[in-house]
Amino acid sequence: MIVKFNVTELLKDSYNRVIRDLRVSLTDRCNFRCFYCLPHGEPPMAPKEQMLTYEEIEQACRLFVELGIEKIRLTGGEPMLRRDIETLIRKLAALKPAGLHDLALTTNGYFLPERAAGLKAAGLDRVTISLDSLKPDTFRQMTGVDVLERVLAGIEAAKAAGLTPIKINAVIVRGHNEAEVADFAGFAREHDLRMRFIEFMPLDSGHDWSRADVVSGREIRERIEERFPLVPAPVRRGAETSARFVFADGAPGEVGIIAPVSEPFCGACSRIRLTADGQIRTCLFSTVEHSLRDCIRGGASRPEIIDYMRSVVLKKEPRHFINDPDFRQPARTMSFIGG
Ligand code: SAM
Ligand code: SF4
Q1: Contact call for residues 262 and 214 (beta carbons, < 8 A)
Q2: What's the pLDDT at 265?
Q3: Span 197-223, average pLDDT
Q4: Residue 54: which domain range?
């Protein structure tokens, strides 16, 4: 018998921010070597038994959805490296009647040509695909792999499968791809995509981030507008991290600029993260984690797990501290945390 536990209060942090958005990292592993993320490959992996199983992820997500989470995004590392991700997607898609509105996946796109249709059939709503260059040489130099054509085919496959609206993430890094910003906007127009330009953040495993490498959101916008004038989108930001624009001439596609370094948006943050080994992180830049895995595996009852989730969310940081003089890069990198 299923006992429905009535949860009436939404997840709220101590600054009154309602938490609606959960990012779940499925693995720390990756088949790419993006220099701004995992330049030297994965550090030693956590033992397999420390990873959350699909059943544990489902259990955690079910409780989070009952507490008001509306969006779940699967990420990593490369989430499609986790075996049979379609099984997990089916389990999570079953949470829609309980209040999940949006089930998405962030991927480097490598596996999409063969698997996009299966992801859709399993219940995935949409994908975000990372694409840092439209030029084969720059793509290889930024990602460590020579597979631009395959990723472009992955975008086509996602579109054909109806995993829409498709977002494309490009991390813009000085000296690498800033000259391509307007080309990307053209690509979004041509293929009716939601282009997301992301400032380079200090979350790289090489610890090589430098402020001088950050191309600011403002510069990104100026570079786009030299070719394609923009106007604010009808929904400018909402609960999203990006400032959104559409093309002034009414062309299809959309542009979003995610500028956590130069224009922090922490006041509107509605997000928490669950790492592949079951740690809740309340901010990308948190220096502490909270073991939901230990809570679940320790035999906590359902109300006890819910209490734990609420108590962790109350510890969410007011903001990130990238721009403070004593900022310390978190020990875990983007590939562990789940971007
Ligand atoms: N492997 C998948 C992918 O690349 O889409 C999912 C995980 S990846 C960590 C998620 C997103 O984080 C990607 O769009 C990636 O470009 C972004 N990212 C990784 N390292 C970053 C950094 N140091 N600064 C800004 N964005 C970063
Ligand atoms: Fe892998 Fe994604 Fe990190 Fe690139 S950004 S190394 S594809 S996890």
Answers
A1: yes
A2: 77
A3: 92
A4: 7-337
**Domains contained in the chain, number:** 1
Which pLDDT tens digit goes with each residue over 57-114? 999 999 999 999 999 999 999 999 999 999 999 999 999 999 999 999 999 999 999 9
pTM: 0.94
Ligand 2 proximity of 30 Cβ (cutoff 6 Å)? yes
Q: Is 77 in the pocket of ligand 2 (CB under 6 A)?
A: yes
Mean pLDDT estimate for the chain: 92
Distance 24 CA to ligand 2 centre (A): 15
Counting beta carbons within 10 angstroms of the beta carbon of residue 319, is it exposed (0 to 12), middle (13 to 18) or buried (19 or more)? middle
**Per-residue pLDDT tens digits for 249-269:** 999 999 999 998 888 878 888
75 lines ligand 2 (CB under 6 A): no
**CA atoms 10, 15, 16, 19: torsion sign:** negative
Q: Using the mean position of ligand 2's atoms as its centre, give its distance from the Cα of residue 162 in Å.
A: 24
Residue located via tokens 């809570």? 295
Which residue from 311, 300, 198 is spatially nearest to 255, judged by alpha carbons?
198
Q: CA 333, CA 35: separation in Å to the nearest integer?
A: 12
Question: Which CATH number does the domain housing residue 255 bear?
Answer: 3.20.20.70
Which residues lie across from 167 on neighbouring strands?
128, 194
